[in-house]
């Protein structure tokens, strides 16, 4: 039986860079989840009888919200829901299932790399039929709907058993509980040379993959250990936990420090990698060398043809604006297109659908390709393994040869987290007000050649996205970018991205913060970071 329940709007359900993200207690307010889910369904058309994919990264509150989504999908008129066993689907696996089953769309429950638990983060995101995050047109419609909602509809039924694989009925709708790993593992086997990678592991190649007690554990165990023959135990922290074992499932140098320290030690394995809460990010570390995500994007693009799935070459490369320009020179050399988009994976969807780009990446540890419409952590790890198996060189040798060939983009991101929202907005407003007068002036000894607030003109659908980040470019080609995070759940996070291209062979081995010291100082003085935020140093440096 379908129940209509009266409700009143919340005024803070605006989806950010990647869906609606809030603390769990915030989501637990009466009807908060139901309002948002109903607003999603009310903003869509033509899904009667169609398939919806539902899954999440297993974090605290995942199962409860899945039950609500299933019952509301039945009331809304979906014909079938595919849900991962235990409510688990990594973000890239969900994207794959949406695509391969011709689903109408999907609801993915995750707050990505943010911590989980009763007082930590949760998130709800809607993906469209191409498997990618809903474009702004849809997220804006959802937000508009949340402001006027007056009732939601839900099928009145007991909870669905999410743990047994099989098909059951929820009123007129079918629920299929599916193996979360199988289809994804099969897709990876198609893209990569598994036999070459197996041979490499057979010859003693060693790796450490840290699943961070998040969603990739079961995927990595099956693919790396079972199918590719990595030594048992190569995948660590492999069991997804609702609170990620109390850690941040963020594969960066702060939260994956143990792995980093191991990779820098004499006993390091050949290859180290990690993924985040929902499995879309990646961290790549060779023995004695951390590969920045921007460099990794460039390297993967330059070597992709070594993998069967990309043997025919790439159509183009896309990167988010704050990502370093390392990939641009690879595209130039390959004679293919390069696209610069705002931050957030949703902007890559049109380029991938139109066949303009094959590989995409962001500086925030996200890389992926046209195989799905999300970034994909394990995909990046497997493409690296494929390249290592074919080239039979170390990660360090491959990276250093790349720098000699293309130059090195020294790159760092400084994050100031949980700062006062007004102070953060004031800082950005001040920067914007300075933009017009900056070109031709000098900041900390560096000449400004260009300054703007990035506006994206989508070459496929013509849509325009303004105010996507303040960038200041210097005449030596170095650059700084300022933007506020759109994924935070409390206060504001200021991200400052700093970059410099060096081609001089003697200067390819500098320490990153030193190589960028004058750009960093210029950013701090132009933005007045310490005066405006009270912070004298960033919270996280990546
Ligand atoms: C961050 C990253 C961005 C990524 C997003 C979702 O967004 O910067 O590249 O797409 O998370 O994983 P931000 O918090 O900066 O808005
Ligand atoms: Zn993620």
SSE arrangement:
Blueprint: E1 2-6, E2 20-23, H1 24-27, H2 32-42, E3 51-56, H3 62-76, E4 80-88, H4 91-100, E5 105-109, E6 121-127, H5 136-146, E7 151-155, E8 166-170, E9 173-178, H6 182-191, H7 194-202, E10 207-210, H8 216-227, E11 235-236, H9 257-264, E12 271-275, E13 282-286, E14 289-291, H10 293-303, E15 316-320, H11 326-334, E16 337-341, H12 349-353, E17 359-362, E18 366-369, H13 377-391, H14 395-406, E19 408-419, H15 421-434, E20 442-443, E21 446-453, E22 456-457, E23 464-465, E24 470-474, E25 479-484, E26 492-502, H16 512-515, H17 517-527, H18 529-533, E27 540-541
The site of zinc ion has 7 residues, from loops.
Would you kindly provide a brief summary of this structure?
By secondary structure, this protein is an alpha/beta fold. Helices cover about 30% and strands about 25% of the residues. The longest helix has 15 residues, at about 60-75.
Tell me what the structure shows.
By secondary structure, the protein is α/β, with parallel strands linked by helices. It contains 18 helices and 27 strands. It is globular, with a radius of gyration of 23 Å. The chain is 32% helix and 26% strand. Helix 2 (32-42) crosses helix 5 and helix 7 crosses helix 13. The strands form six sheets. A seven-stranded mixed sheet has the order 2-6-5-3-4-9-8, sandwiched between helices. Helix 8 links the parallel strand 10 (207-210) and strand 11. It folds into three domains: 2-180, Alpha-D-Glucose-1,6-Bisphosphate, Chain A, domain 3, CATH 3.40.120; 184-406, Alpha-D-Glucose-1,6-Bisphosphate, subunit A, domain 3 (Alpha-D-Glucose-1,6-Bisphosphate, Chain A, domain 3, 3-Layer(aba) Sandwich); 408-541, TATA-Binding Protein, CATH 3.30.310. Zinc ion binds next to loops.
């Amino acid at each position: 039986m379908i129940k209509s329940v009266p409700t009143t709007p919340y005024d803070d359900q605006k989806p950010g860079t990647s869906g609606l993200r809030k603390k769990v207690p915030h989501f637990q307010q009466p009807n908060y989840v139901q309002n948002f889910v109903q607003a999603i369904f009310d903003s869509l058309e033509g899904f009667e009888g169609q398939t919806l994919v539902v899954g999440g990264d297993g974090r605290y509150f995942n199962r409860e919200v899945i039950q609500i989504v299933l019952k509301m999908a039945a009331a809304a008129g979906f014909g079938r829901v595919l849900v991962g066993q235990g409510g688990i689907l990594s973000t890239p696996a969900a994207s794959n299932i949406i695509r391969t089953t011709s689903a109408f769309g999907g609801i993915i429950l995750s707050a990505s790399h943010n911590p989980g638990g009763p007082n930590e983060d949760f998130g709800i995101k809607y993906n469209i039929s191409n498997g990618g995050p809903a474009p702004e047109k849809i997220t804006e419609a959802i937000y508009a709907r949340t402001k006027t909602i007056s009732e939601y509809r839900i099928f009145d039924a007991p909870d669905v058993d999410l743990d047994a694989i099989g098909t059951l009925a929820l009123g007129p709708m079918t629920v299929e509980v599916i193996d979360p790993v199988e289809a994804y593992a099969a897709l990876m086997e198609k893209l990569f040379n598994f036999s070459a990678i197996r041979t490499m592991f057979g010859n003693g190649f060693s790796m450490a993959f840290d699943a961070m007690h998040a969603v990739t554990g079961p995927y990595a165990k099956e693919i790396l250990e079972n199918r590719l023959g990595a030594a048992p135990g190569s995948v660590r922290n492999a069991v997804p936990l609702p609170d990620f074992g109390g850690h941040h499932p963020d594969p960066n140098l702060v939260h994956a420090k143990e792995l980093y320290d191991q990779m820098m030690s004499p006993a390091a394995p050949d290859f180290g990698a990690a993924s985040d809460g929902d499995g879309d990010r990646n961290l790549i570390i060779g023995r004695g060398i951390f590969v920045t995500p921007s460099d990794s994007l460039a390297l993967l693009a330059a070597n992709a043809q070594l993998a069967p799935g990309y043997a025919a070459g790439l159509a183009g490369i896309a990167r988010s604006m704050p990502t370093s320009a390392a990939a641009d020179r690879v595209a130039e050399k390959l004679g293919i297109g390069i696209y610069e988009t705002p931050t957030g994976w949703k902007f890559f969807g049109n380029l991938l659908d139109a066949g303009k780009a094959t590989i995409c990446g962001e500086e925030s540890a996200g890389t992926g390709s046209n195989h799905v419409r999300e970034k994909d952590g394990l995909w990046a790890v497997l493409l690296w393994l494929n390249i290592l198996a074919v080239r039979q060189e170390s990660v360090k040798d491959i990276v250093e040869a790349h720098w000699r060939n293309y130059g090195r983009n020294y790159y760092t991101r400084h994050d100031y987290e949980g700062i006062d929202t007004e102070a953060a907005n004031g800082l950005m407003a001040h920067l914007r007000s300075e933009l017009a007068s900056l070109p031709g002036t000098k900041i900390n000894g560096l000449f400004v050649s260009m300054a703007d607030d990035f506006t994206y003109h989508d070459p496929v659908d013509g849509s325009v996205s303004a105010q996507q980040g303040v960038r200041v470019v210097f005449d030596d080609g170095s650059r700084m970018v300022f933007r506020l995070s759109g994924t935070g759940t409390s206060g504001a996070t200021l991200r400052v991205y700093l970059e410099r291209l060096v081609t001089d062979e003697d200067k390819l081995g500098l320490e990153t913060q030193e190589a960028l010291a004058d750009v960093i100082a210029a950013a701090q003085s132009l933005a007045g970071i310490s005066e405006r935020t009270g912070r004298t140093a960033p919270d996280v440096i990546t």
